[in-house]
Amino acid sequence: DKLGMRFLFTTGKLAFFDCGGIRLMLDVAENPEFDHPSSILYFRVPDINAAYRQLSGNDVVFEDKPHVIAQMPDHDLWMTFFRDSEQNLLALMSEVPRI
After folding, report:
1. CATH number where 79 lies
2. Which of 38, 64, 82, 98 is most buried, most CB within 10 Å of its CB?
């Protein structure tokens, strides 16, 4: 609910969400050998500051404020990080054209 992804359904320990037209499947590790820190999921947004304000209003707690992490020839790459309810690290990213 906080991220605005539409929940689709669950089956067993799997949960499926619609993430902007992409189906996202989340699962719990079945064996201890697979229970390790997760990969970071990056959500590309058109306006990182607007997304930051919207999610902050939905009680998402961010690790930092949106900031430039790389300067490319034609745009700046902005990111900000936050954690989900299971403490997995997630991020918003935005490519901001240089004017």
Report:
1. 3.10.180.10
2. 82
Distance CA 89, CA 83 (A): 5
| Same domain, yes or no: 51 and 92 | yes
Average pLDDT, the chain: 88
Strands ordered across the beta sheet of 22-26: 6-11, 14-19, 22-26
Residues 4-14: tens digit of each pLDDT: 889 998 888 88
pLDDT tens string 28-59:
777 777 676 777 888 999 999 999 999 999 99
Q: Rounded to the nearest 5°, which phi and psi values hold at 75?
A: -155, 165
Let me know whether 43 and 83 are in one domain: yes
